[in-house]
Amino acid sequence: QVQLEESGGGLVQAGASLRLSCAASGPTPSLYAMAWFRQPPGKEREFVAAISWSGGMTNYANSVKGRFTISRDNAKNEVYLQMSSLKPEDTAAYFCVGDNDIVFSPETTERVDEYAYWGRGTQVTVST
């Protein structure tokens, strides 16, 4: 069973940067597609960004495009989310997710139910 663990969340001021990390472990930790979702207070989980195995394909939600960058290091079995120009509306619990059985496309990578593996989340709070 693959396990995902996020780290790097915290409280920052608007305009600041933050980098989230996700470490994968287990029998087959190198998942083909990895992504970040977030859940703002009182709202549904929403897609943030996704990356393919090679890193050659990425997908971003319009709300974070140009501000967030997803990357991965397969040698370390880690995925990262570099967040810049943070806004109060970025406040949410951020979840690292992954799956091996996914055809990478904007449509599939944005669906919550496409991913078999989920971390427990890390909280990001952006103050004004």
Give a brief rundown of this model:
Strand 7 (68-73) and strand 8 (78-83) form a beta hairpin.
Molecular structure report:
The structure is a single chain. The protein contains 1 helix and 11 strands; from the N terminus they run E-E-E-E-E-E-E-E-E-H-E-E. It has 128 residues and is mainly beta. Strand 7 and strand 8 form a beta hairpin. The longest helix has 4 residues, at 106-109.
Give helix % range: under 10%
**Given the helix and strand composition, which structural class is it?**
mainly beta
| Rg value | 13 Å
Mean pLDDT: 94
Order of secondary-structure elements = EEEEEEEEEHEE
Measured distance between first and last alpha carbons: 40 Å
Relative strand content:
over 45%
Oligomer: single chain
Total DSSP helices: 1
What is the tally of beta strands? 11
**Sheet with the most strands?**
7 strands, mixed
